[in-house]
Amino acid sequence: QVQLVESGGGLVQAGGSLRLSCAASGRDFSSYAAAWFRQAPGKEREFVAGCTWSGGTTYYADSVKGRFTISRDNTKNTVYLQMDSLKPEDTAVYYCAAGRIPSTSAPYPYWGQGTQVTVSS
Q1: Residue among 60, 83, 78 nearest 14 (CA)
Q2: pLDDT at position 27
Q3: Strand stretches in 3-54, DSSP E
Q4: Among candidates 113, 108, 94, 100, which has minimal Cα distance to 29?
Q5: Mean pLDDT, residues 50-61
Q6: Which residues, in sequence order, are bridge partners of residue 111?
Q7: Cβ-count burial of 28 within 10 angstroms (0-12 exposed, 13-18 middle, 19+ buried)?
Q8: Structure confidence at residue 55 as a pLDDT band (50, 70, 90)
Q9: 3-state SS of the chain: helix, strand, coil percent to 5?
Q10: pLDDT tens-digit series, residues 90-117
Q11: What distances in angstroms separate CA 90 from CA 33, 63, 93, one per listed residue?
């Protein structure tokens, strides 16, 4: 009943920046928590960043803290992930997720299609 549409992935050199967007449709999304996960080839999907839409709390994986910023625009039902100082190890498929309960694990009911982020050396 909720669809998430991601955009903004691409190829960037190490030290560069990208901004990912996740637009929600299908229902009013303002009360949902949102998160970004990523999955590199041969590795498990891991939590990257999350936030609550009804509050203001954000949380980050240690590997990206200080470099990535999650934010949202409730008027557009859109979640963003600003990625700065990108490293080759950030290369992965990035997924937007949403649900009523925030989590740093995977049990979100709604997921985007994924967008590839590739960071060159």
Answers
A1: 83
A2: 66
A3: 3-7, 10-13, 18-25, 33-39, 46-51
A4: 100
A5: 84
A6: 97
A7: exposed
A8: low
A9: 0, 50, 45
A10: 999 999 999 988 888 888 999 999 999 9
A11: 23, 9, 9
